[in-house]
């Protein structure tokens, strides 16, 4: 490749390569088996579905190493039942990697949530944020009673996580894994202001569970 394509020697990419070499050397010293094990494949127990925000590096805040978390991230951690990108990640993680937990993670001060609470035109993002705006519409009365913007953002983030968990529970592959091997779903919010992780409680009574399973459980045709 030409120097124009790769950048000058000593440029940004070369700086990154040097940093990675320092990190890999440190890893080899602290855990000599880490890279040989990584080269053999991955077996993460967690699928993390989070926001693309640069302040929430999942492995770092969970105190885990590369290879321990399978990841899908997008603007405002929105889970849509027709999004082929997230569906592909969920299918691979659940059906093939056999993850034991799915974490749907939002965060405070989320730009996507704040955008859905505002009315500025954002182009393509307006289409992506439609599910969030619908949640805003559905909970207008509650949100309008809140004077504090951060409180509104936090509450809409909670609703977005609950909706994401609901979409996951309607996914046939997830349903099978929950039934057959006790796959567990969790909702959390990361607080960027203090580094704490808040659990968003999500319950489903027996009556709703039966209705959901009757409507969304599928079987292979005979």
From TrEMBL:
<dbReference type="InterPro" id="IPR015892">
    <property type="entry name" value="Carbonic_anhydrase_CS"/>
</dbReference>
<feature type="binding site">
    <location>
        <position position="107"/>
    </location>
    <ligand>
        <name>Zn(2+)</name>
    </ligand>
</feature>
<comment type="function">
    <text>Reversible hydration of carbon dioxide.</text>
</comment>
<feature type="binding site">
    <location>
        <position position="53"/>
    </location>
    <ligand>
        <name>Zn(2+)</name>
    </ligand>
</feature>
<keyword id="KW-0456">Lyase</keyword>
<comment type="similarity">
    <text>Belongs to the beta-class carbonic anhydrase family.</text>
</comment>
<keyword id="KW-0862">Zinc</keyword>
<feature type="binding site">
    <location>
        <position position="110"/>
    </location>
    <ligand>
        <name>Zn(2+)</name>
    </ligand>
</feature>
<dbReference type="InterPro" id="IPR001765">
    <property type="entry name" value="Carbonic_anhydrase"/>
</dbReference>
<dbReference type="Pfam" id="PF00484">
    <property type="entry name" value="Pro_CA"/>
</dbReference>
<dbReference type="GO" id="GO:0071244">
    <property type="term" value="P:cellular response to carbon dioxide"/>
</dbReference>
<dbReference type="GO" id="GO:0015976">
    <property type="term" value="P:carbon utilization"/>
</dbReference>
<dbReference type="GO" id="GO:0005737">
    <property type="term" value="C:cytoplasm"/>
</dbReference>
<protein>
    <recommendedName>
        <fullName>Carbonic anhydrase</fullName>
        <ecNumber>4.2.1.1</ecNumber>
    </recommendedName>
</protein>
<dbReference type="InterPro" id="IPR036874">
    <property type="entry name" value="Carbonic_anhydrase_sf"/>
</dbReference>
<dbReference type="GO" id="GO:0004089">
    <property type="term" value="F:carbonate dehydratase activity"/>
</dbReference>
<keyword id="KW-0479">Metal-binding</keyword>
<dbReference type="GO" id="GO:0034599">
    <property type="term" value="P:cellular response to oxidative stress"/>
</dbReference>
<feature type="binding site">
    <location>
        <position position="51"/>
    </location>
    <ligand>
        <name>Zn(2+)</name>
    </ligand>
</feature>
<dbReference type="GO" id="GO:0008270">
    <property type="term" value="F:zinc ion binding"/>
</dbReference>
């Amino acid at each position: 490749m030409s120097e124009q394509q790769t950048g000058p020697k000593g440029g940004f990419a070369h700086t990154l390569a040097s940093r990675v070499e320092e990190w890999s050397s440190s890893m080899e010293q602290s855990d000599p088996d880490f890279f040989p094990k990584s080269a053999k494949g991955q077996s993460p127990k967690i699928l993390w579905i989070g926001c693309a925000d640069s302040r929430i590096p999942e492995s770092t805040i969970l105190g885990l190493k590369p290879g321990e978390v399978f990841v899908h991230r997008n603007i405002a951690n929105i889970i849509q039942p027709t999004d082929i990108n997230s569906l592909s990640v969920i299918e691979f993680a659940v059906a093939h990697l056999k993850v034991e937990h799915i974490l749907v993670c939002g965060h405070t001060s989320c730009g996507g949530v704040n955008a859905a609470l505002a009315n500025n035109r954002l182009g393509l993002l307006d289409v992506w944020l439609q599910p969030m705006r619908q949640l805003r519409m559905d909970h207008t009365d509650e949100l309008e009673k809140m004077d504090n913007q951060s409180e509104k953002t936090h509450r809409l983030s909670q609703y977005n996580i609950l909706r994401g968990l609901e979409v996951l529970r309607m996914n046939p592959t997830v349903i099978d894994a929950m039934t057959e091997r006790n796959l567990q779903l969790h909702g959390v919010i990361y607080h960027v202001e203090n580094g704490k992780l808040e659990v968003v409680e999500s319950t489903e009574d027996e009556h709703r569970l039966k209705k959901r399973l009757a409507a969304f459980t599928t079987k292979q045709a005979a």
